[in-house]
Amino acid sequence: MHCGALHFAEEKTRGNSFNDCCHHGKVVDLNIPEQDFPEGLRDFSVSFASLNPLRYRYPSKRGPYCFRIYGQVYHKLNVALNPELDEDPAYGQIFIVDTAEAMRAMIKANAGVDPELLRTVYEVIRRGNPFAEAYMMMKEEECLELERARLENREPTEIKLLFETGKQLDRRLGYNVPRANEVAAVYVPGADGEVPDAKVVVRQRGKELKILNSADAMVTPMTYPLFYPSGTLGWHPELKQSNSTRRVTRLQYVCYSIAIRKEFNPILYGGKLFQQYCVDEYVKIEGDRMRWIRMNQKKICAEAYKNIDNMMMLRAQELGLPLGRKVILPPSVTNSPRYVEKHFQDAMAIVRRWPEILDNLFHDQTPSDRPDLVVRVFYLKVKAVMQQIVKLKIFGSVIAWMYPVENQGRGLPHIHLLLTLSEEDKLLTSEDVENRGISARIPERDSELYDLVKRFMIHGPCGSLNPNSPCMEEILENGKRIRKCSKGYPKAFQEKTLVSENGLTLYARPDDDRKIEVLVSGNRVELDNRWVVPHNPYLLKVFRCHINLEKVNSISSVKYLHKYVHKPPDRARLELETRNDHDEVKEFIDARYVCPQEAVWRILELPMYDRSVIPCVIPMYDTRAEMVNSTIKRSEFWRIAKKYKLSRNMRALETEQEFAKDLIEIGNGNWNDENDSITLPSECISYGDLAEEIFANSIDTENFEEMANSAILAPKNIDVSEINSRVLGMLPGKEILYTSIDHAEDENRQRVNEYLDEYLYALRPNGFSVHELRLKKHAIVMLIRNLNIEKGLCNGTRMRVEEMNANLIVCRILTGDKAGQTAYIPRITLCCSEEYPFDLHRHQFPLVLAFAMTINKAQGQTLERVGIDLRNEVFGHGQLYVALSRARSWNMIKVKLDYSNSDRKIKNVVYKEILDERD
Predict the structure, then answer these.
(1) Residue 585 belongs to some domain of the structure
(2) What are phi and psi of 331, to 5 degrees?
(3) Contact 26/93 with Cβ under 8 angstroms?
(4) Distance set, CA 49 to CA 131, 181, 327 (Å)
(5) How many domains does the structure of the chain reveal?
(6) pTM
(7) Smallest Cα–Cα separation from 609: which of 762, 758, 403?
(8) pLDDT in tens, 275-332
(9) Do 848 and 736 lie in a common domain?
(10) By its UniProt entry, which InterPro entries does this protein fall under (predicted)?
């Protein structure tokens, strides 16, 4: 929609807009190079790189190639112009020797590569790359200086090549392709020997490798000359978003660079080099986050971790060391120890052969060449699996679920999904297990399922049939060390499925004549039911991949989901014993592995963990009849109440009486069809970005009065929050973040310290402010507590922010009889003692953004322009009537429907029995 990137239809996140390419139009027109480059491996690119790239090589074993790094990554520049006498020229040095010598060195380093191909690329980069030209400039100057020194009968002066890095270079060039004299300069020092300051200086001789800052714009083109043959600058901190003063983040830049478009993109053809690029760029993104965390310990409230202070003091006393520095890693960092703990408190498959991947590969590519396709398709498959299980209820009603995303040793993604079924649908008996689809048997030989089980659901084989299988481990048994399968295969024969009293399940594996023939080390071997991995035949047929399904019966299943996530290395622990520091950032970086699929997953901001939200709702009424009988019209008092009726719609315009009649018909359910749906008029349907349609004009023209009389309504809070964040981003001006101060207390009003601060921050009981309140001047907000009824400061009052201070926000009231008056809103302490096993106290401004609000909160409001987000349908009696009646005519309303809704039909929940007259 914005940048021409190609997507799967299911990847839409907002109307016809996508997030994982240009972030809904924020990042467009980046100068991603479009020059043809030779096919080959990452080693081929190394020959032309000015920087010393990542040198990790995955062991040559069976399976797809996977580039992977461990620990910290550095980008180093060879700062010697000439190679040592006993060394071949490398990196930038190949551009200062003659072509024959350069070709000899490159052919030696790239055995098996076509020499003519090497020569062609060498000439292209030599002629058009500013970094190569910079080395050649220095060599020419060196030759001239040697000749001058010979004529003047003196020693030649050392010549230096100075690369310009940092903000000055970034600001001057922006997106443009640089020239050699813009990125570097050759200096011949004068009598005093001084040259201008520079971060990177190339000398004539030496063995030093200079570490470059990953934020320098020249790091990426110097590391990947095949992707940037013209030396186009990479990301740098001064890049600005399209039509905005906001900066482009490194993550947004990389998302844009790896998006699939109709134009040629060399990065996507890089194969193994593409894998390196993804890992390298993600490590830079993560490095930026780690630096921010290290420099902002106060903002993440590191001082609140008193238990670590106590531990460090005890260690200092034991080891006789001074008290070291504490650096805390918050739970927002995926796979950090607190991340695992947080998700524990909250509480698939190899994809290479999927047609969605194979059909979208470029010519002569394999799935391992395209980690971007692998993770995008895998994520859509996960969503499809959840659709089958949760929405279609193939196992019954699911009341809770959770899963983390993990990557195998070679980088392939998979999930471990834990489901909790409702009481009536739990698998309690052997018949439940078999009838509801957990099988560990070989199917009929001539069936489609037989081929799928043979392809995806046979373990190993291992044991005596294949002693070198990866699942084999050495154990001590009866005093002897033997090798056995860590998964317990082959299983014992079992005639019928058996569920024991404690819930342990043994699946039926009868000793029958059904066999599957496989090849093991060139020999044909027959396997029986003992080798079948438990699975669901329906899911196996639908998704055609390995999906292991097991019945579990203990809380240890939750621990299993996270047991692989964080394993601190011995090296980090040894360092802590010799230095009394507690640096969780360094420990995290030193202990990590990063592979291409995980890197792309994180770059595209896909969730590493997901779970169901279990609402704690007290059922007041069991049936619709009970709900109707609880209304005031069914009360005994209704008979004696005096009733008044409006003779006309006070909100509708005089010229829009037809609109008023339509509202009455909708409110009474007279437009409803047999499915309780109505068809909306075509003129009120929004086909674009709803936030843009409602607010863009008033924001662009700075008509804040018009903006105050506009709002977007939605049935659910989650949609309201998304829209509010979107509109706040559209509003010009500086954004101010106000964070709350939270703590928990027990029934004796004593502070409880066992809950993570981050856990408390995430809680949002009804009527509470959020932990992080983001505001701008002129933002529309709503009061969520009664502060002073006489002054119009009631729960639900809409206001516009006029001034923001640390502990006081000045607003102008927009609704009620006090509209136009100034209000002063202080921070207050809110307390919730009903929803949790502790009292939650939060000190924060009692405000929420109100560009958008729930339909229920909008009752009583009259607006000039109304947007209604019905991607999620209404669910309560009269909600649709309330939403539509906030406006004064059909042309003041814009309704956003789900993109799959082409007939304009929406749900209209009306309990007609409530509307029946009762005297």
Answers:
(1) yes
(2) -70, -5
(3) no
(4) 10, 19, 36
(5) 4
(6) 0.49
(7) 403
(8) 888 888 888 888 787 777 777 766 655 444 555 566 666 666 666 666 666 666 665 5
(9) yes
(10) Helitron_helicase-like (IPR025476), P-loop_NTPase (IPR027417), Pif1-like_2B_dom (IPR049163)
